[in-house]
């Protein structure tokens, strides 16, 4: 193991190389754990489907991943690097992110681009998967893929360029601070999904003619709950991807302010635990409890680097306790979010950002002339990102609806999508109850009733 | 990437900073993988419940995590740092662990406290989860939460302060050596659980009026078995949390003695493999095989740093082969441990420590005046930790029993806890056999018979 | 935290020690994530079995792991280090890998052997698990264990010594390049399995007397699909184990050529995504889609370090689209591979290597006199490794067949292996359809028909 003693400068370069390798390793494991998010979402989403749609839900979830990766290679990464200042691309700054750039492939002089691209691609796939569960059991596969690509390789990453980038205009102009991506990932995904839900409409049988709602529940709550715990595992990869390993010094957040993984560890666990309790208080059931754990992490994500941990517990608890009420409100409005994706990600992210405007206002941003964190900046940023999600989600799904390609035909929906989409059976040997056909607690209404209704 | 060449001292500080970051990363991944333990336990425990109790088992498991995290923040971590010498707290030494200390939150001068606290909090949650499975299907939720907090944020961490801490009195006085936490985590959790099991009593139908036993089996053995393999994955996080990353040098175990991750890798895999085989030899079924894999790791945990790997295989095999017999012995005594938690963790940990007293006796402990590892110290330490677990588990559950709040009413137990605890259904579309109501192989006895009985 | 300033030489040694620790950590996490492969395979293989065989499939899968670890300790690791040049062992070079060597156990002077051994042992267990699924529902447990040990601790590691080792003769003589182990792991495992399948024969009912085929499908496709996504998670551990952390410099591949984790990240994700799409195009169902994701990674594994990422996408897509046709071809030939293991691993690995001979021909190998990568070397290497797998798989299973110990008796197979092998029930409370007894779409043929048949 002995070698000639290097000079001071050589040794410095050796240390920098060592740190480069360690940075690459860190994000490699972030990527691997973000794949766990996909194993978790797959389990969760299949479990949340009725038997007649279970495999179709799996296919949809898997296809989202399959389409996000190449599209994020061809244009998603370029968007992140080109649009920090708004909607006019910085062509020069983003040139290295063009798919034919020497950085966008194996390059032994570049230990960074591939690993960062891959981590962001997993963020993108996660964003698309957030929408996926909400739309099960009636959305057409091709329409979903189009929406997933627009959300995962377009909209969210534009939001990331604006709000989760050292030069993003929301930060440089308004002092926006959201270290854990509650805005660009969760708020955008949630509001985009809300826009789509309005157009795709409720599943047949979800609402009665008088506007009252029936419960439609998935075929395996254990599968969903275990899947959600895997999503929590994957969150450690996701949040690891939100902190910057610096050659030669302390961690920084995405905006360049010093922080520590220790801070992230404190607040992630406390937010998670608070969220579990909050949702338990208002629902007492495990699907919402685990969703509450997610909400807890999402709602403290903006201030992971600065919250006092018991405050993170309280924020997580409060937002998670409120989220099931948001879901009930949507049901009252005739909106059928099959897994509560808007309540968890849209509301959880939005509320978390607004709340952070109260508790971390005054925290300085790095850089000359950048305003400190302030309530209006946080709340305004949350609104900008919510709109950035909602508007394209609504408009594109409206277009798809007008074209008649957003939703499967009613007869296919009633018989179950697996019959038409998937040449295989989920559980060929099990006996089923009539419940697989009629899951409603009241006469089936084939039309979607919108308006005042008793909460499910 | 070029910078001015630093001085030798500056470069030394840069290296130390680099190592600090790497330490923090290492434990971050330990934490993430310990969350996998919880995904695994959730799957395992739901699978081990009958259909009528499946969701309640999940809720219980999730709530344990939710309550351990904040209580471990408020007092668990302080106990670890304050009670190494016995039962008189070292108030000065533990001051930095008080919840209002500057270390107990984001602090860019402290890259250690948060990550260590979080790793220990996951150990705590694991300890509580060990008890969780044993008590399913009849324990009251509120009583379980109280017991989980006492075990997870109180008892085990006091045991850790005594036996798994460089200044713990069991080590400094008796030479106790238990690098993989077989004592403070597994032995304590197992014996605490045993104490509770005596008071909570068997599930209705588990024993007949004549004392003979019926088998009560969970509704999905595949779910349990796959969950246990995830627990094994998580064990790599757990055992990683048992080795100390040192700035400027070789790994040490928790007592400050040099060791390597390589040693841990050798003996973890060999103990695991031996345990699988051992349990196969005496049971031939996958639930006990996977439990045997756990037992294998637990039983070699005390000497992970020093065993010759084939010895670890043999120890794991022997202890795992014996554990199902321990479970049968408990059944004969009328004790209904629903998942064999005592046999796996209590017996496995205890036996592993005692056996280590034979094979690693004479191994020197670091520090002036600290006795070397010796059989009496190991066996005595195992007894101390077993009592430290058993006594509070027994007494507190006895108190809860006297107060009439330990166990659910018999009619709720017979109908199934999901009906009363959880406003949701686990599997609404599946057809069930009568087996969900009467799982016994003999006439149902509605009273719990305790005493001599034929093994199941 | 302050210390005396070290000398330049001392500081260099401190840096080297830091890197040694980081190397050990990197492979520790590779090992942990490769255990995820086993959780995934367990889920996948149980799900792919009919209910009557579900637990036996789990036991078989677990036992493979349990037997590979010790046999890989006693002779597998020695084979890797002794047979790089062919079939005459290098006794001197492999002496440190003998089980009684000081390196083969805890040794505070050696932070490498244990962690490398463990990573390779997990590769070995993965190799054996590849075969495992193909043989479910009719292979005798003892025969499977023998075959698993020969494959996992013998054949593949000999192939690794030849083709995935800096001194392996296939590289030094022919210029063979296969950084991601498509050959020694996947091609060998697939062709070994094919050899066994020919002798073990099809499951009763798989083929009709006229040679036409019936579908036999597993009892839970969701369980299989989720398991496969966990295998993908584990692949990041597997591929991490394919890159060499170097003290003092850039990553190298197993042959000593410089590369980056970034390159691996680019091509792993792109190959995976392409494979998902490819299999979707030809099958439209989630089991093959997830298998296609595996095929995508396997097929780009030879050139992970050099492919342009969109090329990896295309290769993955093409090979994965073709694999279901390979499975159909086997069915036509009367070969009953229950999970498509040959199509995924044997065909996927073989095709990936041959294709790499087109796209990376001319890439220089390090070292004097070592030929550059070339088409004949790649294709020839693929053939050598395919034969190295096929011949022992075929001959040993033929011997076991002649001895009458390869396959369970027909009556046990018809009634289900769980009845004879496992004293437990998988799902005691569920109602089953007749499908658990008669899964064929035509009259059951109790004899295995081999020959031309319509594809299933």
Automatic annotation (TrEMBL), chains A, B, C:
The chain crosses the membrane at residues 25-42, 62-80, 114-136, 143-164, 179-202, 223-248, 260-280, 287-304, 310-326, 338-363, 375-400. It comes from the Bacteria. It is found in: Membrane. It is a multi-pass membrane protein. The keyword Transmembrane applies. Belongs to the ammonia transporter channel (TC 1.A.11.2) family. This is Ammonium transporter. It comes from Aquipseudomonas campi.
């Amino acid at each position: 193991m002995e070698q000639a003693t290097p000079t001071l400068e050589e040794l410095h370069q050796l240390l920098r190389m060592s740190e480069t390798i360690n940075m690459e390793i860190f994000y490699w494991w972030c990527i691997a754990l973000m794949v766990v998010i996909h194993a978790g979402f797959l389990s969760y989403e299949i479990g949340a489907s009725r038997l007649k749609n279970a495999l179709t839900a799996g296919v949809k979830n898997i296809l989202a991943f399959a389409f996000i990766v190449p599209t994020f290679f061809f244009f998603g990464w370029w968007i992140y690097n080109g649009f920090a200042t708004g909607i006019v691309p910085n062509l020069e700054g983003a040139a290295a992110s063009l798919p034919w750039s020497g950085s966008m492939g194996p390059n032994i002089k570049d230990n960074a681009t591939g690993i960062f691209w891959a981590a962001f691609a997993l963020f993108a796939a996660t964003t698309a998967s957030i929408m996926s569960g909400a739309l099960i059991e009636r959305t057409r596969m091709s329409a979903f893929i189009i929406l997933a690509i627009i959300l995962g390789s377009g909209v969210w990453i534009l939001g990331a360029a604006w709000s989760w980038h050292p030069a993003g205009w929301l930060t440089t102009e308004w002092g926006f601070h959201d270290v854990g991506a509650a805005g660009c990932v969760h708020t955008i995904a949630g509001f985009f999904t809300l826009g789509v839900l309005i157009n795709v409409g409720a599943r047949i049988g979800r609402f009665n003619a008088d506007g009252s709602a029936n419960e439609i529940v998935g075929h395996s709550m254990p599968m969903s709950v275990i899947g959600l715990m895997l999503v929590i595992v994957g969150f450690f990869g996701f949040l690891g991807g939100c902190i910057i390993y610096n050659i030669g010094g302390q961690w920084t957040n995405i905006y360049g302010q010093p922080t520590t993984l220790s801070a992230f560890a404190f607040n992630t666990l406390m937010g998670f635990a608070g969220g579990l309790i909050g949702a338990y208080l208002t629902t007492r059931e495990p699907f919402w409890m685990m969703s509450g754990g997610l909400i807890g992490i999402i709602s403290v994500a903006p201030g992971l680097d600065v919250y006092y941990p018991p405050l993170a517990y309280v924020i997580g608890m409060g937002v998670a306790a409120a989220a099931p009420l948001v879901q009930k409100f949507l049901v009252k409005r005739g909106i059928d979010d099959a897994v509560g994706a808007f309540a968890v990600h849209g509301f959880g992210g939005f509320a978390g950002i607004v709340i952070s405007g109260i508790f971390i206002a005054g925290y300085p941003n790095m850089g000359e002339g950048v305003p400190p964190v302030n309530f209006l900046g946080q709340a305004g940023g949350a609104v900008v990102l919510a709109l950035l999600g909602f508007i394209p989600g609504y408009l594109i799904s409206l277009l798809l609806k007008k074209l008649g390609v957003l939703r499967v035909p009613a007869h296919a929906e009633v018989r179950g999508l697996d019959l038409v989409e998937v040449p295989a059976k989920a559980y060929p040997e099990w006996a089923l109850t009539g419940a697989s056909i009629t899951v409603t607690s009241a006469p089936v209404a084939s039309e979607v009733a919108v308006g005042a209704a008793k909460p499910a």
